[in-house]
Amino acid sequence: MLKILTVVGARPQFVKAAAVSKAIADRNAQASSPLLREEIIHTGQHYDDNMSAIFFSQLGLPAPAANLSLGGGSHGEMTGRMLIALEKELVSRRPDWVLIYGDTNSTLAGALAAVKLGMPVAHVEAGLRSFNRAMPEEINRILADRISRLLFCPTRIAVQHLAAEGMSAGVFHVGDVMYDAAKTFGAIADRDSDILSRLALKPGKYFLATVHRQENTDDPARLEAILSALSELEGAVVLPLHPRTRKTVESSSLKKLLLNIITVDPVPFLDMIALEKHAKVILTDSGGVQKEAYFHGVPCVTLRDETEWTETVDAGWNVLAGADREKIICAAANAKTGSLIEDYGAGDAAGKIIDLLLQA
Length: 360
Ligand code: UD1
Fold this sequence. Notes:
- The chain has two domains: 190 residues, Glycogen Phosphorylase B (Rossmann fold), CATH 3.40.50.2000; 159 residues, 3-Layer(aba) Sandwich (Rossmann fold).
- The protein is built from 16 helices and 13 strands.
- It has a seven-stranded parallel beta sheet with strand order 3-2-1-4-5-6-7, sandwiched between helices. A six-stranded parallel beta sheet has the order 10-9-8-11-12-13, sandwiched between helices.
- By secondary structure, it is an alpha/beta fold.
- The site of uridine-diphosphate-N-acetylglucosamine has 19 residues, from α1, α5 and α11.
C-alpha cells in the first residue's frame, strides 16, 4: 500500500487537498483492498476556526494526523519552525510520497523537510508563475517546484513555465483540482448555505470582494485605493475580511472607507461558494478566487498587477486592475463573461494525480 503524507496549512490548501483525499477514498473503494493510505499533517499556519476547522468539516477532509499549531510570526520564522516540526513527523511516519499544495510557507517547508530526508515530493499546482519575486508565494513555488519529483500542473502554460526553467521530467498537465472541488461543492453550497438571505443579498445584484495579499494589505496607499474603489461601486459590496486585512484597516484611518461595505468575518467554504456563484462581479487579489469566479460563471476583476492564471484574462473572464481606483471602478462596471477554458480539465484532475502516484 502506498503511504502518502499530505502537508497543508492554509485555507486554499484544505480545498485542494479535499479533492485529492476524495479521489484517494474513491480509488480505495473501487479496489478489492486499499491501494493508498493518506495521513494529513496540518502545520497550523491558519488557525482561526473559520479559516481552518470549519473547512475540514465542510469539505469532509479527514482529520489531520497531527496539527503542529505553527501559525503566526514572520515568514522566515514560521517556515523555520515548520521545517523543524515537519522533519520529526516525516522521520516517524516514513511516507512513500510527500504531497504538497500551492505556494504557501507550509508548501515550501513540507518540500524542504522531505527532500532533506531523501523522500520524494509531489507538488500539486506546480508551474505557476507571476514573475513577481517580491511575492512570498512566488519564491515558495519556484523553490518547491525545483525540489519536487512529480509536478502536477493545472494548465499547459504552467508546463511551459517549468520547461523554460529546465524541468520536464515528472511534469504532467492534469487539470485543476480546484475545479474538481468547485464541481463537487457547488451543488452542496446551493443546498446548504443561507448566507444570501442572512446578509439580505439578492442574487446577481451584489459585488463580492476579497483582499488579503501582502502587497495590498501592507501598503496603505494600495489598500486605500482598493477600499475607496469598493466603497464607490454601484450596488451592495460584500467583503469577508481576512485577519491580516482587518488588523491593518481597523488600526488606521481607512476604517471609515468600510462604511459603505458589508464586511463580515472570513466565511466558511460553502458560504463563500454561495457568495461567489450569485455575485454580479467578483473583485479579488486571491489566486483561487479568480478561478472560482470562472468556475461559477462570474466575471472577475483582479486587484493585482499580474496574475498566475493568465488564461482567465485571455479567455475574457478576468481584468487586471491592480490597485488603481479608477481602473477598478471601470472594470467592475464593464466586467463580462468570456469563453471556455479547457486547460482546467473536466473535474478529474485529482483522479489523474492518484493514477500517476500509483504508477510512479
Ligand atoms: C497565506 C499564504 C497565501 C494564501 C493565503 C490564503 C503564504 C506566504 N501566504 O497568506 O499564499 O493565499 O494564506 O488565505 O503562505 N492569521 C490569523 N488567523 C488565521 C490565519 C492567519 O489571525 O487563522 C493572521 C496571522 O497571524 C498573520 C496574518 O493573519 O498575522 C497572515 O497570515 P499568514 O498565514 O501569514 O498568511 P496569509 O496572508 O493568510
